[in-house]
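Dear colleagues,

For the upcoming journal club I promised to circulate an example of a predicted protein-ligand complex. I picked one with adenosine-5'-diphosphate because it came up in last month's discussion. The inputs are reproduced below in full, followed by the predicted structure.
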Amino acid sequence: MDAASPPAPHIDRRSAPTPMMAQYLAIKEQAGDALLFYRMGDFYELFFDDAVKAAGALDITLTKRGKHLGDDIPMCGVPWHSHESYLARLIKAGFKVAICEQTEDPKEAKKRGSNAVVNRAIVRVVTPGTLTEDTLLEPGRNNFLAALAVEGDVGALAWADVSTGELYWRRTDRTAFAGDLAALAPAELAAPEAETAVAWREALGEARAATCVSDLAAPFFSARRGEERLCETFGVASIDAFGTFEPVDLSALGSLLAYIELTQVGRAPALRPPRQASADAAMTIDAATRASLEIVRSSGGGKSGSLFWAVDRTVTAPGARLLASRLSAPLTDPAAIAARHDLVSAFVDAPSLREAVRTLLKGAPDMARALSRLTLGRGGPRDLSALAQGAQNAAEAAIALSADGGAGPLGALAATLNPQTDGGRLAVLAARLDKALKVDPPLLARDGGFIAKGFDPGLDEVRSLRGEADRHVANLEAKYREATGLKGLKIKKNNVLGVFVETPPGQADALSAPPHDATFIHRQTLASAVRFTTGELADLDGRIARARDEALARELDLFATLTEEAAGCADEIAATADALAQTDVAAAAAHLAATEDHVRPTVDDSLAFDIEAGRHPVVERAVSAQGAARFVANDCRLSEDGAPLLQLVTGPNMAGKSTYLRQNALIAVAAQAGLFVPAARAHLGVADRVFSRVGASDELAKGRSTFMVEMVETAAILNQATPRSLVVLDEIGRGTSTFDGLSIAWAAIEHLHGENRCRGLFATHYHELTALSETLPRLRNVSMRVREWKGKVVFLHEVGSGPADRSYGVAVARLAGLPSGVIKRAGDILKMLEADRRAGPGVDALPLFAAAPSENAAAQQETTDRSASDLSALAAALADIDPDALSPRDALDTLYRLKQLSGDG
Ligand code: ADP
């Protein structure tokens, strides 16, 4: 969406619009940048620019209606009864939509005069972050609305899922913001207008590329008002119970609540008290790493192909949402991680109980979303029945889980599934709803017919009147047949005539003639039938209609009462919904572990990283789906004697380097998220951050060259990785010329080794880097095993110790189908180059024993500025060097000599 408000329709106050147009324009002004759905009878109409935009986005006809300032007014409309599908398309296309309803009966308006306009008002603004309808939401994904408040460099993020009631907040800053936002992936971000957050302009600019940003004016961010709002929303006198808040936190939470209030127009969703998402409690994963590891979304943007996709065995939508959020924010506290693993273990050890619980959960509804719709006045009978059903499923699951006496983690889970607060208030509500509602009630309350017989005596009585009327009709039919002697006479009913007498055309004349014409009044002649009414029938019709209205009113009353009762149980419902989701996730994780051979990892406070026979969950699925080969499992050790190690992974393209790198990062993410892992054994020291980068990924859309992106991202890692971090760098330095790239990769490894001192995996096609292991004690060379057979390469996908023997590029090119002439010529050139390299200085002569890594890069840069003569002197000196013959001491001396030659010594 255009974040700056698009121009409102041109309004010229000097002209005198019709009263309706004046009303429209006034309401449109309130709607701001949202399209205005203006209710007229059975349609929502759009006018002016709104109509043009909507007609384009929806591919519907643009018409015109009347004139404004002498010009035609563009108009389009969508039918009220099917507006949700249009709404969904507009929201997807990035629009917001303000829904304006008639707020009085048109008959009332008429009383004010024939020209009076029906009162209308905006009842809701539909925005991407405030959706609640199942038709507009993805079941297995949270739909977060986030708000950012800033105070200098410090920011606070608050976020809520209006459809489930979850509410969180955390502190952020300009550097962390992009990562925090990527972790949340909100559908919408409410943020301060540009002029009030100048320092954040760049950060917010990037956010706009990732999500829909709605600008809010400064008053939204008043911390004092925020505190008041929090107290009002949760009915407390002081917010101390929810934690310690700085003003910036209060402005974030306050602006979020204010924006919800604004869009829901006074209706409040059942939000839960705010929970602080502590920065330390979760593994930090920045936006680039999320994209590179494809944690909950693959590079295509969807779930398919992501880690989430590969490990999701949940059977409910809330379970899927919980699993996605756990994968997005893996834990860092070993005890909390172990608690999740304990639960999975318990389900692994009890396969039949697990299956029983999973079968039970398959029918469990989305209680949180149902409750949210009900409290926002958008719920229906089906939502009420979802609450009853969910509570019942939870109670049944609790019974199953406490079968062995309720001990251990499963027993504890059972207790949360069946909360006994207030004497089992939820169970009482569920029983009541169960009694109140018919089986499979309709989605909407408006047509009635959902309250079960026997629940409300008043309703049953009104309904029995209707039943009586039916019997009465049958009696009348018999009576009229007898009186007229017409066997073909029937009493029927439709929406236009109500109840009527019908005869075949041939028999109708008898009814229009004396004596029957005194009783039967002609209403309609059709080709196949003639229809009459009678005084008795008209009376009966009236009674039927009144009984229907009365019954409907009674049902709607009951619906409102039941909804209120449900809202009164919001805390228990939320807790039960959470417990159901947790049960689903744990049982699903156990099911995955049991069926896909995943094991419980040991996660502790050490710096260990020891994986035996690890696998890449996504590639493994893809490989087994192809049915051709088996995924080859590989070990990975990134620690020795308690100290972190770096692995340098070499091998030809397509040998499996990237797969190996990522699988180890993914195993760490899955383990800390509380899942078992695809390996034979895993011992991991908690990683505080995981970084993953692929060299030279294309981000030209953001206006940076690919190489610039690569360097910015590498810089972020080198500046932020701690000894607790896990760093995965794939082909860094690829985006520039060979020497540049090699030097940068070289220096980056030295920095990771000497400064960051983290656990890391570094894949490269620069063979020269393998020599680094001679000088860096905690660097290990490993390579992807490859076999050459009859001039062809065979990838074994096996990681072995030691560097790759050579690069196999030409062999891979053959595999890719390059013409044989090109392959042969490339082979010849390679031989020549390799011979050259052996004969004189080449890439191997790079400064193995250079001083500080940072100076390395600087020296390289300067080379380009030298004059041609300097360069030729240098070249001659270089040509004299035989690197293989130099001792370390000689090499250093040579370096000094070269520096002198360059005029810099
Ligand atoms: P590289 O990074 O070395 O170019 P990739 O990691 O992209 O190689 O792997 C290329 C392909 O090889 C993968 O798409 C996958 O099909 C296959 N592959 C990689 N690792 C394995 C493995 N361990 N077992 C089986 N197949 C693998």
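Two points we might discuss: The pocket of adenosine-5'-diphosphate is lined by residues 619, 623, 629, 631-632, 651, 653-659, 797 (CB under 6 Å). Residues 104 and 119 are 6 Å apart (CA to CA).

See you all on Thursday,
B. R.
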